Amino acid sequence: MKTLFLALISLLLTTQLAVADVVGRWQTIDDETGQAKSIVEIYEQGGKYYGRVVDLLMKPDDTVCDACPGDRKGQKIVGMNIITNMVKKGDVYEGGQILDPTKGKVYDCKMWEEGGNLKVRGYLGFFYRTQTWQPVK
């Protein structure tokens, strides 16, 4: 009985770690300049994954998104969800969208962990850009 209990606890902990592999804070790295731009916190809510900007590294924290579409236009970037509605499918998170607050463009999104970093791909049809985000320690 004790062995079964320990096995169940181990299984639950392993499952919990596998689910939470992208949850946390990530430093975004611009794929064009190689510069760190912001800190994004990825969190799970209702079985979906979201990412909100918690710090801007190259601009004041009160910077607003003038180019953003819809109700995000004119809102502060810090605190804004830029990743929405991602669903985990195997080792990949997909089905959601990512907002580029600099350009005000919204793209389909896919992300996965690779070598301890997070690969974040925004795409429109066959065209895409992939950034490598680093964990914040």
What are the key terms here?
single chain, 137 residues, mainly beta, eight-stranded antiparallel beta barrel, 1 helix, disordered N terminus
The main β sheet shows up as: 8 strands, antiparallel, barrel
Q: Level of helix content?
A: 10-25%
Widest β-sheet, arrangement of strands: 1-2-3-4-5-6-7-8
Distance N terminus to C terminus? 40 Å
Shape: globular
Describe the protein's architecture and organization.
The termini are far apart. An eight-stranded antiparallel barrel has the order 1-2-3-4-5-6-7-8. With 137 residues, it is mainly beta. It has one helix and eight strands; from the N terminus they run H-E-E-E-E-E-E-E-E. The chain has one helix spanning 2-19, and strands at residues 24-29, 36-45, 48-56, 81-89, 92-100, 105-114, 117-124, 127-135. It is globular, with a radius of gyration of 17 Å. Residues 3-20 have low confidence and may be disordered. Helix content is 13%, strand content 51%.
Give the arrangement of secondary structure elements.
Blueprint: H1 2-19, E1 24-29, E2 36-45, E3 48-56, E4 81-89, E5 92-100, E6 105-114, E7 117-124, E8 127-135
Antiparallel strand pairs: 1-2, 1-8, 2-3, 3-4, 4-5, 5-6, 6-7, 7-8
Please give a quick description of this structure.
This protein is 13% helix and 51% strand.
